[in-house]
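pls ignore typos typing on phone
N-(iminomethyl)-L-glutamic acid + seq
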Amino acid sequence: MTVKLFHNARIWTASDRGIPLRGTEQGNVTIWERGALLVQGGTIACVGEEIPVRKALEELLAEKGDSVPFQEIDCCGRCLVPGFVDPHTHMCFVEPREEEFALRLEGTPYLEILRRGGGILSSVRSVEAAEEELLYERTRATVLRALSFGTTTVEIKSGYGLDTETELKMLRVIDRIRRTTPLDVVPTFMGAHAVPPRFRNDSEKYVELLVEEMLPAVQAQGVALFCDVFCEEGVFSVDQSRRILEAARNCGLGLKIHADEVHDLGGAGLAAELRTLSAEHLLAASEENLRRMAEKNVLGILLPATAYSLRKPYAPARKMIELGVPLAIATDCNPGSCYTESMPFVFGLAVMQMGLSVAEAFVASTLNAAYGVGLSSVVGSLDRGKRADFLLLAGKSPALFAYHAGVSPVEEVYKSGEKVV
Ligand code: NIG
Ligand code: FE
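k done
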């Protein structure tokens, strides 16, 4: 059980008080100007100003005796922050969709491409055809790219299967990624990502299949922790989404929803009604439904890089903070609406385009994001007892994520106290 002292660091962390931070607290951070972090066996033993942390170290070594392996790492004044938690991705896919991107640039709307059988459905075809090994290799490459940009915990959704067998295959791959990469991986079942062509004229039948066959099979497989639904015009209605999510809850899954991404269908209102853990996207959500989300403590997960890639107005983040909706941010990394693994890019957009302060974006991408995947007790902030997942930045402040545009300031990535990048 090696003991490590990281010292001479400017440390930023969100202040965890047991609930996601919101409103005037959204930007609540603690900063130690000359900080140190003491790690024992991969978890945080002590953090704070260097002098008291060194005291704690002495006590620990006195207790353990000289036989304990010990290492001291000088951070050379750089900023030390928790690893990013990316709470919304579709990183399990085989190939990007450049031709579709070109179509979108020429003016074809995202949902129109889906209606024509492209978009999500074209990824469904390639995922279905792929050997499990290939899907694993491609997913792994994507996830490791995210790690190099500072993501140490990631949620990954299925949803490019749309039949029982392929959805289970995706979840197996996601589980293998969890076991074979340094990241914490949170698997989400998203069989309700699109209506497959064989049910085009009868989406109710597909909902029936989801509820009666797919969800029980997912439950029996035991990999997925959450269920998500794409509640959108031409995809799943509010009523269908409700049925799917209620069935998922009965299968013991946590609930998430793609709500009001393109149209204001009322997904945010449904999130409040069902008290889902989170409602995600929210570009078009009504103020009334955002207010209901705030009342029911539903976390808003915003995906500014999707607005960027779809050339849509950004989600009204300032309004949400004013209403008291706790906010997280995520990449939404997928081959269609938003192809980026970079949390630094998303952080920059959150600050420059959605008007979050650096501290608010910081909390949104670390602690609140950890709440968004149900892992706030182990990751998301630098608190005693949590995993020692952290980054060393090329400078003194997380402002670099927005300020040094298009460039990642992440110099080193540590997972459970071990350097992984
Ligand atoms: O979050 N909206 C649905 N799902 C993804 C896009 C997936 C895709 O286009 O492949 C999203 O935008
Ligand atoms: Fe998404």
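The pocket of fe (iii) ion (ligand 2) is lined by residues 88, 90, 258, 332 (CB under 6 Å). The longest helix spans residues 203-221. more later
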